[in-house]
Amino acid sequence: xxxxxxxxxxxxxxxxxxxxxxxxxxxxxxxxxxxxxxxxxxxxxxxxxxxxxxxxxxxxxxxxxxxxxxxxxxxxxxxxxxxxxxxxxxxxxxxxxxxxxxxxxxxxxxxxxxxxxxxxxxxxxxxx
Length: 128
Known about the structure:
The two termini are 25 Å apart. With 128 residues, this protein is mostly helical. It has 6 helices and no strands. The longest helix has 24 residues, at 3-26. Helix 1 (3-26) runs antiparallel to helix 6 and helix 3 (62-72) runs antiparallel to helix 4 (78-87).
């Protein structure tokens, strides 16, 4: 698979997860909605790192992926990425926790938490 094919696959998958998350959100399944948001953003960031000519690190940490993207980004992109990290530090941490919680911890998310995280993921994906 070429790098461009991998990027396209990651982007396609990243765009599919929010639709699943919104379906789950609309049906009151907030924990899985949040998990799907995390998956979406994780794949999206990995695709962006590949677009910048770097190999993405093998991690599930959204904050680490954003920091890594910042390091390989063009100078004009760096303030945007830094701003996202500062503005959404807590929310990005909650998304990271959702990755583990979906598998091992019976953590429930509220409708309000899921609503906030939907907006955060949308903003990050539209800004980066």
